[in-house]
Amino acid sequence: MIRTLIVEDNPALREALKAGLQATGEVEVVGCAATGDQAVEAGLAESPQAVLMDVELPGGRLNGIQAAVALRREVPRLPVVFYSIQDDDRYFRAFRQSGILSHYAYVRKSNYLLPAMIVPLLREAVGGRGFVDPEIDARVQEVRLKDEESPMSLLEPAEKQVIALVARGLTNEQIAVQLGLRDARAVSRANGQIYSAWGLNANPVDEKVARTRAALIYTTGRMVVWDVDGVPRVRDESGQMRLLRQAGDEAPPPR
């Protein structure tokens, strides 16, 4: 029996999944949650062996991927089976940036939601393997290429104005004056959105470090990734990660 937590915001579907999975005789549902926040609480309280997680979870602070990341901070590599009907870049981007490497599956709700199809996915995740529905994998790679080709495509117009001025060395107050903003805190909020879009808030770093890294991404026009030792790398044409200075990133970004 696989002790499983179900995270689904639709109450009717949540109950149907619970009944269907338990009817297989291979799953014991130890808890249910409707939001990402509740998923974290229930996951820590019930100690499931696996989590069946909807990706879109309105009504809370965390979507399903964010909730899984939070849970796996406390329970490393907790097996999670993600499912979703959504075809939104932000979810595929969140999954790619989560760094999940094993003990998971990510499938389309329309393809894999029958209990008899979910159980093998739970087994695979518990067994330490990873599986991605080919349709989803194609979209994840599409988003990856889009992001790596143009970091600026992830920003809204006002955020593009802000990062251009950040890269010139202006303070938030100076940027606010340049852009005619009434409150410099609007610049700080825009910076936060830029850091989030470019994955600079995935690990705790000083705000000055994030600001410097954002300026470098803008200047190079490439999505730079820093490893745990602070070494900047970019992906080359063959898909390999290379040191930033070896990747020919001196060219200014397109305007």
Model description:
The protein is an alpha/beta fold. The protein folds into two domains: 2-144, 3-Layer(aba) Sandwich (Rossmann fold), CATH 3.40.50; 151-246, Winged helix-like DNA-binding domain superfamily/Winged helix DNA-binding domain (Arc Repressor Mutant, subunit A). 48% of the residues lie in helices and 16% in strands. The protein has eleven helices and nine strands. The strands form two sheets. A six-stranded parallel beta sheet has the order 2-1-3-4-5-6, with helices on both faces. A three-stranded antiparallel beta sheet has the order 7-8-9, with no helix packed on it. Helix 2 packs parallel to helix 3, helix 4 crosses helix 7 (134-149) and helix 9 crosses helix 10 (185-197).
Furnish the topology, listing elements before pairings.
Layout: E1 2-7, H1 11-23, E2 27-33, H2 36-46, E3 50-54, H3 64-74, E4 80-84, H4 89-98, E5 104-108, H5 109-112, H6 115-126, E6 130-132, H7 134-149, H8 157-166, H9 172-179, H10 185-197, H11 207-220, E7 225-226, E8 232-235, E9 241-243
Parallel strand pairs: 1-2, 1-3, 3-4, 4-5, 5-6
Antiparallel strand pairs: 7-8, 8-9
Keywords:
single chain; 255 residues; alpha/beta; Rossmann fold; Arc Repressor Mutant, subunit A; 2 domains; six-stranded parallel sheet; three-stranded antiparallel sheet; 48% helix; disordered C terminus
